[in-house]
Specification:
By secondary structure, this protein is α/β, with parallel strands linked by helices. The protein has helices at about 15-30, 45-50, 55-65, 90-100, 120-125, 165-180, 195-215, 225-235, 245-260, 300-315, 320-335, 350-365; strands at about 5-10, 35-40, 70-75, 105-110, 130-135, 145-150, 155-160, 185-190, 220-225, 240-245, 265-275, 280-285. It folds into 2 domains: about 1-100 and about 270-365, Isopropylmalate Dehydrogenase; about 105-265, Isopropylmalate Dehydrogenase (3-Layer(aba) Sandwich). Bound molecules: nicotinamide-adenine-dinucleotide (NAD).
Length: about 375
C-alpha cells in the first residue's frame, strides 16, 4: 500500500486545537485501508512569527508535493498590524494560487440532531444537503488593476477589477456539473448578468457548456442577489450552486448559518486533474481562528474533521470511509454531545477533545 502524504498546517487560534482532534481520526484510519504519512508545518501568524512570512518557501515546496493539505485556520489580533502582504491570510491566498485551487466546494448539510440550532425553522433546514461550488482563483479578489490611488484633490480611489476568462468559467462549471451527476443532478448558476458584463459572459459560457457536454443535468440560472434570498427562503430547492469568487464567498457564509454553526462546516479546494487524474487539494474548515475562544477547549472540531472526510472522498477515493466518518459524526450528535457553539440553552457541553474522542468511539462502535 503506497503511503498517502498529508501536510498538516494547523495555523493560529483554534486551528491547532481542531487539528489535534483530526490527527486522532487520521491515526484511526491509518492501517484501515490506507497509510497516511503526515507532516506538520507552520502557516499564518505562526509562520510569520517564525519566518517573517505567512507561508515559507520550504512549506510551499512541501505543499506542492503532498497528496493533500489539511489547513486549520489563520489570523488573530496579534497580527493586526503586520504589513498587508505578510498578514496571516496571505499564506492561505498563496497556497490557493500556487496550488491552482480554482474550485472551492462547500457542502451545507443540516444534521437532523442540529435542525433546531439553525436560525431558520426546522422544516426549512432539516435534511438539507446542498453543495456550493465557488470559483476561487479569479474574479475581483485577484483581477488587475487592484489599487488605491491618490487623486491629488484630497480624494483617494479604491479599485478592484472583476475579470473572468472563458477557461476559468468552463472549468468551474464542468466541476459543478460533474459533482451534480454524483448527487441530485441539478446545477444552479448564480451571477449578476443584469448589471455585470462578466456575469453575462459567465451565463453564456455555462449555458454553452451545458448544451455541449452536460445536457443530462438540470441547469437553472439565478441572479446572485435573488439566490441569496432563495437560500434563506427555501434552501432545499438547490442541489449544486456554482458561482464566482465574490458571490461564492458571501453565499456560502449565508448557507453556513442554515446548518447552525460555523463549527460544523468543512470545505475542499481542488485544482485541475493531471494526466494520472490526481488533483492538488486543500481541505479546511470554513471558520476562522476564533480568537475569542482559542485555548479554552471550546472549539467544535467537527468542521476540521469533516474536512478530512472530504479529503478521503475527493483526494483518496475512499468514499466508503468518508461515509463512515459522516455517520460517526451524526451518531455522536444523535447521542446529544455538544460543544458550546451547537448546544441549546442550558444543555451540557463537551470540550474539543471530548468531541474528538466521542467521534473515535462512534467509529469504533461501527467498525
Ligand atoms: P471566526 O470564524 O474565527 O469566528 C466567528 C465566530 O464563530 C466566533 O464567535 C467564533 O468563536 C465562532 N467559531 C468559529 N469557529 C468555531 C468552532 N470551530 N467552534 C466553535 N465556535 C466557532 O471569524 P472571525 O471572528 O471573523 O475571524 C477571526 C480571525 O480568523 C480573523 O483574524 C480572520 O481574519 C480569521 N479568519 C481566517 C479564516 C481562515 O483561516 N480560512 C477564515 C475566516 C476568518
Amino acid at each position: 500500500m503506497t503511503a498517502k502524504t498529508l501536510l498538516l498546517l494547523a495555523g493560529d487560534g483554534i486551528g491547532p486545537e481542531v487539528m489535534a482532534e483530526t490527527k486522532k481520526i487520521i491515526a484511526w484510519f491509518n492501517g484501515r485501508g490506507a497509510t497516511f504519512e503526515t507532516q506538520d508545518d507552520l502557516v499564518g501568524g505562526a509562520a510569520y512569527d517564525a519566518h517573517g512570512e505567512a507561508v515559507s518557501e520550504a512549506t510551499m515546496k512541501t505543499a506542492l508535493k503532498a497528496d493533500a493539505v489539511l489547513f486549520g485556520a489563520v489570523g488573530g489580533p496579534k497580527w493586526a498590524s503586520v504589513p498587508y502582504d505578510k498578514r496571516p491570510e496571505a499564506g492561505l491566498l498563496r497556497l490557493r494560487k500556487d496550488l491552482g485551487l480554482f474550485a472551492n466546494l462547500r457542502p451545507a448539510i443540516c444534521y437532523p440532531a442540529l435542525a433546531d440550532a439553525s436560525s431558520l425553522k426546522r422544516e426549512i433546514v432539516e435534511g438539507l444537503d446542498i453543495l456550493i461550488v465557488r470559483e476561487l482563483t479569479g474574479g475581483v479578489y485577484f483581477g488587475q488593476p487592484k489599487e488605491i490611488t491618490d487623486l491629488g484633490n484630497g480624494q483617494r480611489r479604491g479599485v478592484d477589477t472583476q475579470v473572468y476568462d472563458t477557461y476559468e468559467i468552463e472549468r468551474i462549471a464542468a466541476a459543478a456539473f460533474e459533482l451534480a451527476r454524483t448527487r441530485r443532478n441539478k446545477v444552479t448558476s448564480m451571477e449578476k448578468h443584469n448589471v455585470m458584463l462578466s456575469g453575462l459572459l459567465w451565463k453564456e459560457i455555462v449555458t454553452d457548456l451545458h448544451k455541449k457536454s452536460y445536457s443530462d443535468v438540470t441547469l437553472e440560472h439565478m441572479l446572485a442577489d435573488a439566490g441569496g434570498m432563495q437560500l434563506v427562503r427555501w434552501p432545499k430547492q438547490f442541489d449544486v450552486i456554482v458561482t464566482d469568487n465574490l458571490f461564492g464567498d458571501m453565499l456560502s457564509d449565508v448557507a453556513a448559518m442554515l446548518t447552525g454553526s460555523l463549527g460544523m462546516l468543512p470545505s475542499a479546494s481542488l485544482g485541475a486533474a493531471d494526466e494520472s487524474g490526481k488533483r492538488k487539494a486543500l481541505y479546511e474548515p470554513v471558520h476562522g481562528s476564533a480568537p475569542d475562544i482559542a485555548g479554552k477547549g471550546a472549539a467544535n472540531p467537527i468542521a476540521m474533521i469533516a474536512s478530512f472526510g472530504m479529503a478521503l472522498r475527493y483526494s483518496f477515493g475512499m468514499a466508503r470511509e468518508s461515509d463512515m466518518l459522516d455517520r460517526a459524526i451524526a451518531a455522536t450528535l444523535d447521542k446529544g454531545l455538544r460543544t458550546p457553539d451547537i448546544a441549546a440553552k442550558g444543555q451540557a457541553t463537551v470540550t474539543t477533545a471530548q468531541m474528538g474522542d466521542a467521534i473515535i468511539a462512534a467509529l469504533e462502535a461501527a467498525a
